[in-house]
């Protein structure tokens, strides 16, 4: 009997699949079952009117919020001027233009063990200094490879860094963030200051990030503050044969008629951090393919990271302390995940131990006797 029922069900299923009208009717029923009416659909007309009024208030609130972020940008500009003398002094110490005083070099450790270690290091350092005086060894100037060390340490930047970029970044003296003026469209500029080098004649390479802080007329409720909408790089004046963003390849071509072979050289794009200064252009209609959108979004993220993290906290990324802060939360999540797995395994073991031999089923936790 069961076989006859299953066979009948199979025939009905085949008929439905072969009949488009029946299939459409079935799909319509499924849609009606899965469709969950929104709150607005269930409201009386008079209440809907009032909800629409609340939406209009929300739009006005979004525009006020936009003004708030404009004032925040003005405040950032004001405090950037207060930070800059400190950043200028940082640049001078890194480049070796100035030597900090003994008082400025004192650093109070929070841990006694580190203080003891520091004392030992001081003793060793004094011994090493005396040896250096004897051998007349040259003392390094400033803090060598300061910015290059940061590039190597931060994953987001090291992914862009190529081996042929490193000799150039050794000449990087400073990175600055410059905010747009009061009467200019909202933006910020990253300035990469280089010392004289054999690769290009520019002393400063710039990247401008254009921002928007106003609700989208078509989707005002999506507004969550200023967002980067475009970026603009700069022209790098490479010396001949020093452009690391391109590579020269040789290709052999054979003439179809004469059979002669010639070698043609041409330049093709090459992976390099310095492609950062030649970003994807956003078209007037704003349409980009999926890969371009991802590349541009990554570019915006990197620009924001330079502005918010790298430039203000450079020394902590050099020492690695900022990296520990960035990674600590992820490490805690992994530890919690491992603990959860262990808890799940122990729960499974307990469930197996509480197996009900009468019913042939494991008892739910709430049914277990305490």
From TrEMBL:
One Pfam family in the UniProt entry: NAP
Keyword Nucleus part of the UniProt annotation: yes
Renumbered residue ranges of the record's region Disordered: 322-370
InterPro entries, per database record: NAP-like_sf, NAP_family
GO cellular component, one term: nucleus
First-listed, main subcellular location of the protein, grouped into a coarse class: nucleus
Protein name: Nucleosome assembly protein 1-like 4b isoform X1
Organism: Chanos chanos
Lineage: Eukaryota, Metazoa, Chordata, Craniata, Vertebrata
Gene, per the UniProt record: nap1l4b
């Amino acid at each position: 009997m069961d076989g006859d029922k299953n066979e009948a069900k199979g025939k009905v299923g085949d008929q439905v699949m072969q009949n488009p009208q029946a299939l459409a009717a079935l799909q319509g029923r499924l849609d009606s079952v899965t469709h969950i009416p929104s709150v607005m659909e269930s409201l009386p007309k008079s209440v809907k009117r009032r909800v629409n009024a609340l939406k209009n208030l929300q739009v006005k609130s979004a525009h006020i919020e936009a003004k708030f972020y404009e004032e925040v940008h003005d405040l950032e500009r004001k405090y950037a001027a207060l930070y800059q003398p400190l950043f200028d002094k940082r640049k001078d110490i890194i480049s070796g233009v100035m030597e900090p005083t003994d008082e400025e070099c004192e650093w109070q450790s929070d841990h006694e063990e580190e203080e003891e270690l520091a004392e030992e290091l001081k003793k060793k350092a004094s011994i090493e200094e005396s040896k250096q005086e004897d051998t007349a060894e040259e003392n390094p100037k400033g803090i060598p490879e300061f910015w290059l060390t940061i590039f190597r340490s931060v994953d987001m930047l090291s992914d862009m860094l190529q081996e042929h970029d490193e000799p150039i970044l050794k000449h990087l003296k400073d990175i600055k963030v410059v905010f747009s003026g009061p009467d200019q469209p909202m933006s910020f500029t990253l300035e990469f200051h280089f010392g004289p080098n054999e690769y290009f004649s520019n002393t400063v390479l710039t990247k401008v990030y254009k921002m928007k802080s106003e609700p989208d007329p078509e989707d005002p409720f999506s507004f969550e503050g200023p967002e980067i909408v475009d970026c603009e790089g700069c022209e790098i004046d490479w010396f001949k044969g020093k452009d690391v963003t391109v590579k020269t390849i040789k290709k052999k071509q054979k003439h179809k008629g004469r059979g002669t072979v010639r070698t043609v050289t041409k330049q093709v794009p090459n992976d390099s951090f310095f492609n950062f200064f030649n970003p994807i252009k956003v078209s007037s209609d704003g349409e980009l393919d999926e890969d371009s959108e991802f590349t541009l979004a990554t570019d915006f993220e990197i620009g924001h990271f330079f502005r918010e993290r790298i430039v203000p906290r450079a020394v902590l990324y050099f020492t690695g302390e900022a990296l520990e802060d960035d990674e600590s939360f992820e490490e805690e999540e992994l530890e919690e995940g491992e603990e959860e797995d262990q808890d799940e395994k122990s729960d499974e073991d307990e469930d197996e131990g509480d197996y009900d031999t009468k019913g042939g089923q494991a008892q739910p936790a709430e049914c277990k006797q305490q």
